[in-house]
Write a structure and sequence with these properties.
The chain has 122 residues and is mostly helical. The protein is built from four helices and no strands. The protein has one domain: Helix Hairpins (Orthogonal Bundle). The mean pLDDT is 93.
Length: 122
C-alpha cells in the first residue's frame, strides 16, 4: 500500500536534491534557463505536440545527465579528491556526456524553432 506521507517525504527529498544541484552547479542553472526559454518559445510559437514532446524529452535528458554528472563528481572527489588521473578522467568523461547531450539538444532546438523564428523575422 502506498502511504501518502512516505510519498510526500520522498518528493521532498528529491526536490531538495534538485535544489542542491541548482544552487551548487552553474551549468545546471544555465541549462535550466535554456529549458525555460525553450518552453516559452514553444508556447509562443505553438509548436506541434510531437515537437513539444521532443523538447521536453531533451530537457529531461540534459538536466538529468547534469545531475548524474554532479553525483559522479562528488562521489569520486570523496574517494580521491582531484589527485588521481583516473578521477580526472571520470569527471571529464561525464562532462563530455553532458556536453554531447547539450549540443544535440541545441541542434534539435534550432531545427524545431528555426522555421518559426524565420517566419517571424522575415
Amino acid at each position: 500500500m502506498i502511504r501518502v506521507q512516505d510519498l510526500c517525504s520522498s518528493v521532498r527529498h528529491a526536490l531538495r536534491g534538485v535544489s542542491v544541484v541548482f544552487k551548487a552547479e552553474q551549468s545546471f542553472r544555465i541549462q535550466a534557463c535554456g529549458a525555460v526559454a525553450a518552453i516559452v518559445l514553444a508556447a509562443i510559437y505553438r509548436i506541434s505536440t510531437n515537437q513539444f514532446l521532443i523538447i521536453l524529452l531533451l530537457i529531461g535528458a540534459v538536466l538529468t545527465l547534469e545531475i548524474v554528472n554532479t553525483i559522479f563528481e562528488r562521489l569520486v572527489d570523496s574517494f580521491q579528491p582531484r589527485i588521481h588521473p583516473i578521477v580526472r578522467d571520470i569527471k571529464d568523461i561525464m562532462a563530455g556526456a553532458v556536453l554531447i547531450a547539450s549540443i544535440v539538444s541545441l541542434v534539435a532546438g534550432i531545427v524545431i524553432f528555426w522555421p518559426y523564428l524565420a517566419e517571424t523575422v522575415l
